[in-house]
Design brief:
alpha/beta; nine-stranded mixed sheet; two-stranded antiparallel sheet; 16 helices; globular
Length: 435
C-alpha cells in the first residue's frame, strides 16, 4: 500500500479526538489571533470518492489555514484529508488510520505552522512565503527552526515579511543563514512593522551579515526581543551592536551570548548602554569577557540615569571583591538591576554566608523577637506609616536602619520581592508572601 495515499476516514461515530503526546523537548506550536470565521457550506453535489468532503454543521474554519493546507498538499503531492480540514480548529485531533505517510504529515505540519525541524528547504520556504505575502492568515507566531534554510530561503521569507504585519513572533534559529541572509534580514527589519520577537540563534552570521542586521535594527520601531546567540561573529560586530543600543528605542531583550565577544567588544557595547533608555535584559553569557570588560559594562549603566536595565548576564565571569564594591555603587543608582556573574574570587566562607543569607528570614526573626508583624517592621521605616514608598526611599532607609543590618545585595533581594515594577514598593504583598 502507498503510505502517502490517505485512507478514507472512519465514520463520525468512530472518530475519537485525543490529546497529542508531547515530547520532553521544546514544544513546537502555532499561535493565532482570533480568526475571522466563515461558515462551512455544503456543496450541492458531493463525490463520495474524494477526501475533500465538507459537512454542513455548526463548525467554523480559518480560511487562511485551510488555504495553506491545500497549498501544502499540492507541494507534497498528496490528497488533502477532509477530516483534518473539518477539525483543524479543534484543540486535539486524532489522525490515526488516515494513511498520512511522511509527505501527508509534512503537509499537515505546514498548515499548523508547527514546522520546526522538518528540513523544508527552499521549496518549503517558497510556499510559506507565497502564503504570507498575501497577508490572509490569522497566524501570528511562526516557528521555522532547523529547516535547512539558506540564503535563497532568506530572500523569499524576508520579501514576504516586508509587507506582512500580522506575524509577531518568528523563530528562524538553527538554520544556515550567513552574510547574504543577514543582508536580507536587515533590509526586512528596516521596514517591517509587525515583528516583536525574532530568534536568529544558531545560524552562521559573520561580520558582513551581522552588521547588515544591525543596520536594519537601528531604525526598527516594533521589535522588542532579539536572540542572536551562538553565531560567533566577534568583536567587530560589537561596534554595530553598540550603535543599535544607542539609536534603537524599542529593543527590550537582547541575547548575544556565545558570539566570541571579548573585552574590546564589551567596551563598544558599553558605549550604547550609556545612552540606551529601553533595554532591560542583556545576555552576554559564554563570551570571553573577563572582569575588566564586566566593569566597563556596569559603569556604563551607572553613567546612564535613564537606564532601565534589569538583568545583565555575564554568568561565566569570575569577579573580585573590588568589583563587588563598584557594583554596590551601581546598585545604589539602579536598584532594579541584577548582574549575574559566576562567583567572587577569594571570598571567605564567612562572607559568602553573610552575602547569601535570606534577608526576609532575618527580618522575620527580628519581628518575632519583638512580637510584631513583618508588615509592622516595614511600616515603621516609612515616615508616612503607609503600605507604599518609592524604591529609592526604601533602599535608603533599609541601608541606614540598624534594626536588621543588611548589605546591598540583601536589600536588593527585599526590593525584588516588594517592587510593583512602578518605582514603588508595596508592603501589603507580605500578607501573602512566605519569607
Amino acid at each position: 500500500m502507498d503510505n502517502d495515499k490517505p485512507l478514507q476516514p472512519e465514520t463520525e461515530d468512530e472518530i475519537e479526538i485525543e490529546p497529542v503526546r508531547q515530547s520532553s523537548d521544546k514544544m513546537l506550536y502555532c499561535e493565532a489571533e482570533p480568526p475571522p470565521t466563515v461558515e462551512k457550506v455544503k456543496p450541492a453535489q458531493e463525490n463520495s470518492e474524494t477526501d475533500l468532503e465538507i459537512e454542513d454543521d455548526d463548525k467554523f474554519f480559518t480560511t487562511g489555514q485551510k488555504e495553506l493546507y491545500l497549498e501544502a498538499c499540492k507541494l507534497m503531492g498528496v490528497v488533502p484529508v477532509s477530516y483534518f480540514i473539518r477539525n483543524m480548529e479543534e484543540s486535539y485531533v486524532n489522525l490515526n488510520h488516515h494513511g498520512l505517510g511522511p509527505r501527508g504529515t509534512k503537509a499537515i505540519a505546514i498548515a499548523l505552522v508547527n514546522i520546526s525541524n522538518n528540513h523544508l528547504g527552499l521549496e518549503g520556504a517558497r510556499i510559506i512565503s507565497d502564503f504570507f505575502e498575501r497577508n490572509s492568515s490569522s497566524i501570528w507566531s511562526l516557528e521555522l527552526s532547523g529547516n535547512d534554510f539558506k540564503e535563497d530561503s532568506a530572500a523569499l521569507l524576508c520579501q514576504a515579511l516586508s509587507t506582512n504585519y500580522r506575524i509577531k513572533k518568528l523563530d528562524l534559529s538553527h538554520n544556515q543563514f550567513s552574510d547574504v541572509g543577514g543582508e536580507h534580514l536587515g533590509q526586512m527589519l528596516a521596514i517591517n512593522v509587525g515583528l516583536t520577537s525574532l530568534d536568529l540563534s544558531w545560524n552562521n552570521f559573520h561580520t558582513r551579515g551581522a552588521v547588515a542586521l544591525c543596520n536594519g535594527l537601528r531604525g526598527n520601531v516594533t521589535l522588542t526581543k532579539l536572540d542572536l546567540s551562538m553565531n560567533g561573529f566577534g568583536n567587530e560586530v560589537a561596534l554595530a551592536l553598540g550603535e543599535v543600543l544607542r539609536l534603537n528605542s524599542c529593543l527590550v531583550y537582547l541575547d548575544i551570548g556565545g558570539n566570541d565577544i571579548g573585552n574590546e567588544g564589551a567596551s563598544k557595547i558599553s558605549k550604547g548602554l550609556e545612552s540606551n533608555e529601553s533595554l532591560r535584559v542583556l545576555k552576554l553569557f559564554l563570551n570571553p569577557i573577563n572582569m575588566d570588560g564586566a566593569i566597563l559594562l556596569i559603569l556604563a549603566i551607572k553613567r546612564n540615569p535613564k537606564s532601565r536595565m534589569e538583568e545583565l548576564d555575564i554568568s561565566n565571569v569570575l569577579v573580585s571583591e573590588q568589583f563587588m564594591k563598584t557594583l554596590d555603587g551601581v546598585y545604589a543608582i539602579h536598584p532594579q538591576l541584577d548582574v549575574v556573574f559566576k562567583a567572587v574570587q577569594g571570598l571567605s566562607p564567612k562572607k559568602t554566608i553573610f552575602l547569601l543569607t535570606n534577608p526576609m528570614k532575618l527580618i522575620q526573626s527580628y519581628a518575632d523577637q519583638h512580637k510584631i508583624t513583618i508588615v509592622d517592621f516595614f511600616k515603621s521605616l516609612n515616615p508616612t506609616g503607609t503600605m507604599k514608598m518609592s524604591v529609592d526611599e526604601f533602599q535608603k532607609v533599609m541601608i541606614e536602619q540598624n534594626k536588621v543590618p543588611l548589605n546591598q545585595y540583601q536589600v536588593r533581594e527585599v526590593i525584588k520581592k516588594l517592587d510593583e515594577k512602578t518605582g514603588m514598593v508595596n508592603f501589603s504583598f507580605l500578607n501573602t508572601m512566605k519569607p
